[in-house]
Design a protein that fits this description.
The protein is of the alpha/beta class. It has two domains: 4-251, Nitrilase/N-carbamoyl-D-aminoacid amidohydrolase (4-Layer Sandwich); 261-472 and 515-520, HUPs (Rossmann fold). It is built from 17 helices and 19 strands. The chain has a seven-stranded mixed β-sheet, with helices on one face. The longest helix has 22 residues, at 366-387. Belongs to the NAD synthetase family. In the C-terminal section; belongs to the NAD synthetase family. InterPro entries: C-N_Hydrolase (IPR003010), C-N_Hydrolase_sf (IPR036526), Gln-dep_NAD_synthase (IPR014445), NAD/GMP_synthase (IPR022310), NAD_synthase (IPR003694), Rossmann-like_a/b/a_fold (IPR014729). This is Glutamine-dependent NAD(+) synthetase. Its EC number is 6.3.5.1.
Length: 546
């Protein structure tokens, strides 16, 4: 029996862009046909984008998606395709349409609806009941939608119906643990069913979620036949040998660095680029303080958008060190961005002049420090409004977890690239980015982030000789406690039993719990861990649970 050739569209299909998504599918179908593919496969909810959220409550949106799928079917006279879309039949289903010969031959519905983490499928969809089988060039192909492969029953049903190959279309968001988990699940399903598996995943950033692609081919014995690179848009060609039940990739793209830091950095770059471009902003601006968080954010923004679309603003105060001034200017000039310096002292003093009569009898405290940050926030937002450049917030997950951030100050911004990145990871990413710069240029003296900025003690510079560790535990200790409490949901007693100081654990946990109100007002940012603040981790602001 001849091999079955597939074309797998690991591409971005933006939410709500029904017409553009449909046009992209038509173009890719034509490429697949020209390349000799017998089957073109597209991701989960290709037509609507994923997740469309409450757009699915609008009848006009559902009707547009249905019309788009019908139109695509008319372009399949010489092609067979599987396309994801929201299927409305009184109830709404997360569906895959099997189309060929100019018509929709069959529609299958997602059976397992995830309702955890970032997923909210049960709010919008009803579950399907059966696993679909189609015959393509004599090969019996089962096809499932995303979560269906994470449970044994849908794949088992497809195999029982005679499937030799199972195709799974996905919109599976990325986090640092996801790829290993996918491979383990797919290997298990292949061994259980005796079917080879094609796992096609969406790629691209959508608000707080990033999809990595990372598509997979798995042989019937559970071995991984091919891995697609993360965060790369590509039409992936594959051949299925039904006699051996094996899959073979044909010239898949390869990335040179698949390390943890490289993939995380790519996720953040993709998140920034897609958020800015999909929302139609010509560029971004950010406050460049001379500290490591804003320095890494600047490097990410330049890598995502190009230096001509990035503006960096240094806003010095009496407490700003020469190291900060030199580091900010040096990096801005090195990366070639538009760089501005606006001293905030006069504006801050004007605020203080107005407020001092009302502060009478009160000692200086964090109020005055926060006012400096809020002065910067006001000025950055004014520049953002005037120049139509989206403001990036530069805070990291460690700070957001314990509230070491100022509402309407350094929390100002429409997007926060480091929102889900712990401080210790900020250091690792910064060092990796500099190593990457050396690799690219071949010059050992090259850097993207000034080395003195990486090596200096972190400081908000809101008072003389201030460091972060005046207010917080060392970041290695803090982040270890936070990861156990947030990602692993460990109790304080469990964390203490693991060897952490009791007083420090109680203090850190208290800070996390009392600062929920700040996080509710924070800008969105890309989810890159298994427990991100925002749509994934939703704790009550008002709670008696300590």
């Amino acid at each position: 029996m001849a091999v079955l050739r597939l074309a797998l569209a690991q591409y971005d299909f933006p939410v709500g862009a029904v017409a553009a998504n449909t046009a992209k599918v038509r173009d890719l179908m034509a490429q697949a046909e020209a390349g000799g593919a017998s089957l073109a496969v597209f991701p989960e909810l290709t037509i609507s984008g994923y997740p469309p959220e409450d757009l699915l409550l609008r009848p006009s949106f559902l009707a547009a998606c249905q019309e788009a799928v019908q139109d695509l079917a008319t372009h399949t006279n010489g092609m067979t395709a599987i396309v994801g879309f929201p299927h409305s039949q009184g109830e709404v289903y997360n569906a895959a349409a099997f189309m060929r010969g100019g018509e929709i031959v069959q529609i299958t519905h997602k059976q397992i609806l995830p309702n955890y983490g970032v997923f909210d499928d049960k709010r919008y969809f009803r579950p399907g009941r059966t696993s679909a089988i189609a015959v393509i060039q004599g090969v019996r192909v089962g096809y499932l939608v995303c979560e269906d492969i994470w449970q044994a029953e849908p794949a088992a049903a497809a195999a029982a119906a005679g499937a030799e190959l199972i195709v799974v279309i996905n919109a599976s968001p990325w986090d640092e643990a996801k790829q290993l988990a996918r491979e383990e699940v797919l290997a298990a399903r292949a061994k259980e069913t005796g079917c080879a598996l094609v796992y096609l995943n969406l790629v691209g950033g959508q608000d707080e979620v990033v999809y990595d692609g990372g598509s997979l081919l798995v042989n019937a014995d559970g071995s991984i036949a091919a891995r697609a690179p993360a965060f790369v848009d590509a039409l992936l060609w594959a051949d299925f040998d039904p006699a051996e039940r094996t899959l073979h990739a044909r010239d898949w793209p390869v990335v040179s660095d698949t390390s943890r830091e490289a993939t995380l950095y790519a996720a953040l770059v993709r998140g920034i680029r897609d958020y800015i471009d999909k929302n139609g902003f010509p560029g971004v601006l950010l406050g460049l303080s001379g500290g490591i968080d804003s320095a890494l954010t600047l490097a990410l923004a330049v890598d995502a958008l190009g230096s001509d679309r990035v503006t960096a603003v240094m806003m010095p105060m009496r407490y700003t060190s020469q190291l900060s001034l030199d580091g900010a200017r040096g990096q801005a000039e090195h990366l070639g961005v538009d760089y501005r310096v606006i001293g905030i002292e006069p504006v801050y003093e004007a605020f203080m002049t107005s407020l001092t009569p009302l502060f009478e009898g009160k000692r200086p405290d964090t109020t005055e420090e926060n006012l400096q940050s809020r002065t910067r926030g006001v000025m950055l937002m004014a520049l953002s409004n005037k120049h139509s450049r989206l403001l990036l917030a530069t805070g990291n997950k460690s700070e957001m977890a314990v509230g070491y951030a100022t509402l309407y100050g350094d929390m100002c911004g429409a997007y926060a690239p480091l929102k889900d990145v712990y401080k210790t990871e900020v250091y690792r990413l910064s060092r990796w980015r500099n190593q990457e710069q050396v690799r690219i240029t071949g010059n050992e003296g090259e850097w993207a982030i000034p080395p003195p900025v990486i090596e200096r003690p972190p400081s908000a510079e809101l008072r003389d000789n201030q460091t972060d560790q005046d207010s917080l535990p060392a970041y290695d200790e803090l982040d270890a406690i936070l990861a156990r409490f947030i990602e692993e949901e460990q109790s304080q007693a469990e964390i203490i039993a693991a060897g952490f100081d009791e007083h420090t654990v109680h203090r850190v946990v208290r800070l996390v719990l009392v600062n929920e109100f700040k996080r509710r007002q924070a800008a969105p940012g890309p989810r890159v861990t298994t427990r991100a603040f925002g749509r994934e981790r939703r704790y009550p602001i008002t709670s008696g649970w300590k």
